[in-house]
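[#protein-structures] MJ: dropping Pentatricopeptide repeat-containing protein here for a structure pass
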Amino acid sequence: MGTQSRVAGFASAEELKALTPRHRLCVCGRMNLVVVVGRDRPDLRWRKNGKKATCVLSEILKDFYAKADWSLFMSVTYLWKIGVGLFILNYKRCLGGEGLRCLELFSEVIIGMSDLKKGRAQVPQMTWFILFHGALSEPHNGRSGHVHGSKCSQFSQVYTIANNPTNNSPTSITWNPEVGEQVGNLFLSLSNHSNPEVSCFSQKGFSQITEEIIGRTIHAICLKSLVRLKVFQTNTLINMYSKFGRINYAQLVFDRMSERNEASWNHMMSGYVRVGSYVEAVLFFRDICGIGIKPSGFMIASLVTACNKSSIMAKEGTSFVHFYASYGIVSNAQKMFNEMPDRNVVSWTSLMVSYSDNGSKKEVINTYKRMRLEGICCNENNIALVISSCGFLVDIILGRQLLGHALKFGLETKVSAANSLVFMFGGCGDVDEACSIFNEMNERDTISWNSIISANAQNALHEESFRYFHWMRLVHEEMNYTTLSILLSICGSVDYLKWGKGVHGLAVKYGLESNICLCNTLLSMYSDAGRSKDAELIFRRMPERDLVSWNSMLACYVQDGRCLCALKVFAEMLWMKKEINYVTFTSALAACLDPEFFTEGKILHGFVVVLGLQDELIIGNTLITFYGKCQKMSEAKKLFQRMPKLDKVTWNALIGGFANNAELNEAVAAFKLMREGGTCGVDYITIVNILGSCLTREDLIKYGIPIHAHTVVTGFDLDQHVQSSLITMYAKCGDLQSSSYIFDQLVFKTSSVWNAIIAANARYGFGEEALKLVVRMRSAGIEFDQFNFSTSLSVAADLAMLEEGQQLHGSTIKLGFELDHFITNAAMDMYGKCGELDDALRILPQPTDRSRLSWNTMISIFARHGHFRKAKETFHEMLKLGVKPNHVSFVCLLSACNHGGLVEEGLAYYASMTSEYGIQPGIEHCVCMIDLLGRSGRLVEAEAFITDMPIPPNDLVWRSLLASCRIYRNLDLGRKAAKHLLELDPSDDSAYVLYSNVFATIGRWADVEDVRGQMGAHRIQKKPAHSWVKWKGNISIFGMGDQTHPQMEQINGKLLGLMKIVGEAGYVPDTSYSLQDTDEEQKEHNMWSHSERIALAFGLINIPEGTTVRIFKNLRVCGDCHSFFKFVSGVLGRKIVLRDPYRFHHFTNGDCSCSDYW
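AK: finished. structure tokens for Pentatricopeptide repeat-containing protein:
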């Protein structure tokens, strides 16, 4: 079957399977023209046929993976070069799971190469951009016509762009669709030629030609046919003529090229060297430098060969030492230096400069020693250079010896030498000596001031650094970007951020804000201070960016939790063909430490293998962490076993992965192996990981306590991180008493230790004790950080203590933490749980600035306050902005549906959670669904749901079903739910109460007494109901029928008055909520003594009109009290907010925000 006939059509899956690999590649390559269709309105043709093509690609990969056929792999790699545009599309919308699987499968193939040891795949960077961009499933404003065209919604637009005759820069994606019909026929005739050297011309150019006559013939045919060769074909033609010694022909072809790339220059340069024209090669190289082209490593290698085989070196020795040093070829600089017949102090200094510029500080010192042994006296320049090297090496002893040399030769007064001495002593920690030398200097320049400012900054004397800077400005010494960069480097903390902003203002004032080094320091400063938006603004306004800029922005997004933004920056680097190093990959992989970004991380792993960085220790460690965080410990173990070298970080990453995945036995086994190996010592991170994996009392006894003993023996118990982990471990395992004991025994308590004990008390419901600890912490003078504030705000939220929460929020603003997204979300949650919805919305970030945590918090707040439609709208707005929901998002969303009685919508969201987003249901999702079905009366469906649950039901599941059975008086199902609930926890008081309430609702009082008798027999007491009101810093707590409050007489009088006015307004008590076997009058009296009614009366007496009355209850409000509150709000015109453990009820003008469904 001819490939030309398939240019504008699809091959069926069956046809593709029948083709040979080479023909299959051709067809798939041509198919590239029609499969890259729009993201917003995918072509129906793609939906029908594109998936077939994807399946075929997947089958090819599977064949390779199963057979490990290297030749087939090369075909697959080439296939991805020409057909990878398939994956620009949103695979979840158009391809379903198959497209996603193809992405993962290709990455698996690349990663598998490291096992096959067959070599390295040559996958172009643009290919990786498209793979990665497809995984992100987000639009991108590219510059390539073909990639831009792939975003069009119509196939015709793509086809037009691909066949545009003005497009003379075909890429590996478009293959050769721009070749016209005449060229296509010529290439087709060549590809059908019997000679294999000719038949592969269209793909490999002249690179496979072994006979000069064949190459010249093909060249002549192309000239005769007026065929315009591609750049890569012309490059191979230059290489062919050079290979056959026809350098003049090669030069002629080169001169006539209308467009050249790096390979063009490389081939011409190597051609001169190949034919022995070394002088011409050097002159050609000078021409390259003269027109501003940066020489490649290949050109440098050719130049070295030319120079070594000519006499040029001997004539210009020192200049060539400089030249080699400027391109990092230190070995050749050394060789050139050794061959020089005459060497003077300038030559020695040039060699020392070459070592210094390339980071070989020890060689600088060794060269200086050799120079002195040969009797060459030092001068101002080389003594300054060698002293600075001592500063980098932190060798103060040698530095003092060199100070003696400077004194001997009278160089200590020279500005450059004195500057180096200041730098050296500052770097070695002797700031006093550095200041003494600086103060004695008769002459100072900008470098002098920079050195003394840097000396203080390096030793954390930040105020002194700014004092010298102020002195510098007083004497009118000119500052430069280095001065400001040093100052900015110490302003990354919140305490010094204002100073940093001032320095930033000076940079703008003096026109230094465009300096790339200064901009990079600004990026780091704002990033370290948690100001990612400011860092982003700096980054986007930079006139030019280097690798440090990109890596800094990438790390900033990761540090701020904006992982999707980080991955988009990485995709942008690929798109713009920016340099990438191991630091880039480390940050990019750190953005994938969540299971939802597993595909992106897997593609990054493949990219690492392609670039040959898989053996870099830091990348291997990050990959192990990535697989551990994504719950793929089998992959992490494989990678660990393949790593050629292991260090402490490697072991910690593996142990941490086991701990995060609750594989305690595996974590302890790895810990033992690490200790037995002896090559990598245990550190505090190892201990913290092991302690963090102990979650139950059994874990505590078996592993936790022995590890604690180990920390005491080895001294790790003195480390603050280990102390915090010990407190947290005992609390998680149910031993809060031991946590408190460890805390009390500590003499010096750090911020992290305070945070651990506060969180431990909050976890066990001791919120008041947690807030007391917060007060103690502040009294002790401990500086609060983001974690302390977040924990404290969460405690205030759980206790609904609005005033304390407002004070804490005010402190965060005062200390400059208002933009920290963790604190912002904690403050939003606090305002939401305290009933202040408007305040929560007031501090809500702009949609484009919101993290997923912010979206989840808002959905939860809307659900809790009865704004179900807003909760749904917030969820869909989050999706539109490209934020992927996680399991917490769906817990909040299903909770909103539950509170609003939106059964069908809840069922639809639950189904989409797995089908569309790949999120497996957790126990929280299942409880929401059972409660939703049960409270809507669909008890049979609720029971069936429990039967089909993917995870075993727990006490929350059966308790929810039992509560619904009470509402709808379903005794049989209620008996079954109570049985399961009591089997799980025989001491659960709520199980007995709910079970007795089921009997009470149908009037079976004997059974009620029987259940209560069982509670007494088991010595189980019902949790008493109580409500409370906070006013003017005091909390008034009321129990059912409570008569102990000092204002009880007024409260009773107020209740009688309320009973009268609401009765006149139409209120009729619903005695079905009185679950006692008494007469109607007594039932009414009992309901009037409910704690929430007493609290309401107290609030109406003490809280002035116009102020909202806020009441909190520890149990669910009863239905009759709910009706009573509605009538009171309508009759008195008062706003009342009642919060129970399930939700907020906002009563206004006789209505409730819950619409009587709760």
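MJ: nice. The chain has a mean pLDDT of 76.
AK: one more thing. The CA atoms of residues 588 and 1106 lie 54 Å apart.
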